[in-house]
């Protein structure tokens, strides 16, 4: 039994993978809580794909892949905000246009590179077992920056997320705060992509936070519980991946999905298995 | 609870009106929602903003709040341009515009009323907590402070939004449709609260469909249908002609024992 528990951590790459996933889980739960309550999952998906454009350009120019991913994600986030404001398009249309454009740019650039297949798969599907010491430092640095910014501007982020009209009426710079949140989302995605890859990033952002929302009633508690759920999913997923020899990012994400299903069925107030209590009139009494 | 910094500056002679609009034109894209709106409301008045759906009531409130810039004309609060009077204004949006599934408690929402005064980077202090608590007590929700907002009834949800407006410590309150969907008891409680606020010297502009309420209990009425059809004391101005022009369909105004009641025919 103790072999099952302790064997994996004899390999340094497993320890590094766990450290990376724990940090990513924490940052993703904090930023992901905003993504969940504001219904921004699609833009999360979009930015993850868009970061690939930046990665490809950085790869071709021989620059830092992280920097490329960050620039790609943040530029796309700003472009989405700008286009939807100026062109009077629906927000999700602007997301669809901009992120596929950035992704296609990535494919175009990569198709001219030698031996791009290996890097492509590790970026698309994640390669958390390949995380090295410098990756860990970067994840820690970017993660700390994101957490500090959320802590400092928590009041503004909460108010503009909950009630942008009222926030604007109170004199808060709503547009700037919303652009800022998109920027934070871009940075979060960059570090999460390293752990789980483009395709699974949204799961890290959305699934633990959404699971937490079924269980607690305040945004900061949702962040804290989401981080715990993300960390538990990471740990369990890594064990699964080690002992069953399956892809670690997929194992982590599927574990998180299982936690969500458990909460969905068993959550004390909203669980599917409990008889539905009539809510104390959640909707307005009349039109 | 009146605070010093939101009170009007001491002036010479006659105090300027709490709300003063002169020839205000505003709208969205090229569609005009307000055409040359002019009226003023004195300090300490309870004023009703009356008009059918799409008559520009919400637009008018947004212009006064500075959230929508007028194409032409001028808005002054206690004689000051709106950029300099933001803290004097408290606003309550329509209930339907609020996300009730959001993970915040009643207390969190009321505390948001303090954020405009706190400004960036500052966290709520003891004074802010005291005010949030007072405002919750004032609307009778102190017992439900820890509830998630989605668990409240419609009437309680409205009281949360009113408590948040009060927590802004405004001298002028702009309330968008506070009576919609409120039963008779709720309406009575709201009017009682409005009278208390008026007695504290606050000015209220309340958009509503409820004509009999305005006719019976308000000091002032503004009848709006993109233009100001009439404005002044309800008893005087709420005539059949004015209401016909405002609502563009036939209305009868009955006067029963000194109380004016509007009836759709």
Main traits of this protein?
heterodimer, A: 287 residues, mainly alpha, ABC transporter involved in vitamin B12 uptake, BtuC, 77% helix, disordered C terminus, B: 265 residues, alpha/beta, Rossmann fold, six-stranded mixed sheet, four-stranded antiparallel sheet, 12 strands, 32% helix, disordered N terminus
CATH superfamily grouping of the domain at 15-97 and 171-264 in chain B: P-loop containing nucleotide triphosphate hydrolases
**Cα gyration radius of chain A (Å):** 20 Å
Q: State the end-to-end CA separation of chain A.
A: 61 Å
Share of helical residues of chain A: over 70%
SSE topology string of chain B: EEEHEEEHHHEHEHEEHHEE
Spans of at least 5 consecutive residues with low confidence of chain A:
278-287
Q: Find the count of extended strands of chain A (DSSP E, 2+ residues).
A: 0
Distance between the terminal alpha carbons of chain B, to the nearest Å? 44 Å
Instruction: Label the structural class of chain B.
Output: alpha/beta
**Fold-level CATH name of chain A:** ABC transporter involved in vitamin B12 uptake, BtuC
Task: Note the total helix count of chain B.
Answer: 8
What pattern of helices and strands is seen along the backbone of chain A?
A: HHHHHHHHHHHHH
The CATH architecture of the domain at 15-97 and 171-264 in chain B is 3-Layer(aba) Sandwich
